[in-house]
Amino acid sequence: MHGPLFYSKILLFGEYGIIKDSKGLSIPYNFYKGALKLDKHHTISTHKSNAGLRRFAEYLENLQQEKPEMISFDLESLKADVEAGLYFDSSIPQGYGVGSSGALVAAVYDKYANNKITVLENLTRDKLLQLKAIFSEMESFFHGKSSGLDPLNSYLSLPILINSSDNIEPAGIPSQTANGKGAVFLLDSGNTGETAPMVQIFMENMKQEGFRKMVKDQFVKHTDACVEDFLLGDVKSLFGNIKQLSKVVLDNFKPMIPIEFHKLWKKGIDTNAYYLKLCGSGGGGYMLGFTEDIEKAKKALKNYKLEVVYSF
């Protein structure tokens, strides 16, 4: 058995903001991928993945008992495959903000859900929201709380525009320019990040009126503007808004930025060579960079590993 491939994702804009109804834009990233397989090699990592899937299967059984109207799985097949050594063979780094658990959730839904909504049918807004709700419940096993967007992106392999929590649609994004100087890139922090504690910090901060005001008046405002500029291909306006967003994050989301990157983050804002933002919940993993001149950014960040994910 070898299941279909499911890809990683990158949330270009909207981390934390989408919890508070900002816009968001998520794109598939085909460099990393994963598939369900039956274990023939019996390595430590396949055993670990199999044990994780065993716990996940138990969680899904409970979920089905609690919410039978929402979701139904072929649990017998899932359990039999887990017994036979089912594991998720994935190149997606875990704790890096590129959707490792999302791809796994998409793969399990695709293989074992009864009456599943398929990618081939007419995906109305209702169907998208239904999928997102199912994926949210499934992925909560990994993060404690999940929007369901990562698995949705992985499952559909389409860019997704989040207008608000109950208004999402597949998005057409401007096509990439093969030799464009502008780029979106991933910057490797060298450490993994844990989603749940970062979200916890954000939720604690949201209890303070000043922080709530900043999120609404600055963070969400610039995030929404970035999404609109990106979709319209308005590069000049986009970089003005990304610079503002990068400043807001540096000033107000310091715990989410690994401490050794605070200076590098500020250097980008001061020199305009690049602007950094969070990729996912932060705390480690990747950071997302935007630059109008990738060669200039590479020089400024010559000691770090960059991966270009989009050129314009």
What does this structure look like?
The chain folds into two domains: 6-170, 2-Layer Sandwich (Ribosomal Protein S5, domain 2), CATH 3.30.230; 183-311, Alpha-Beta Plaits (2-Layer Sandwich), CATH 3.30.70. The strands form two sheets. Strands 1, 2, 3, 4 and 5 form a five-stranded antiparallel β-sheet that branches. It is built from ten helices and nine strands. The chain has helices at residues 44-66, 75-83, 100-112, 125-143, 149-156, 195-205, 209-232, 235-252, 262-271, 294-300; strands spanning 6-13, 24-38, 86-90, 160-164, 167-170, 183-188, 275-278, 286-291, 306-311. It is of the alpha+beta class and 312 residues long. The mean pLDDT is 91.
Summarize the structure.
The chain is α+β, with helices and mostly antiparallel strands and 312 residues long. The chain has helices at 44-66, 75-83, 100-112, 125-143, 149-156, 195-205, 209-232, 235-252, 262-271, 294-300; strands spanning 6-13, 24-38, 86-90, 160-164, 167-170, 183-188, 275-278, 286-291, 306-311. The strands form 2 sheets. Strands 1, 2, 3, 4 and 5 form a 5-stranded antiparallel β-sheet that branches. The protein has a 4-stranded antiparallel β-sheet with strand order 7-8-6-9.
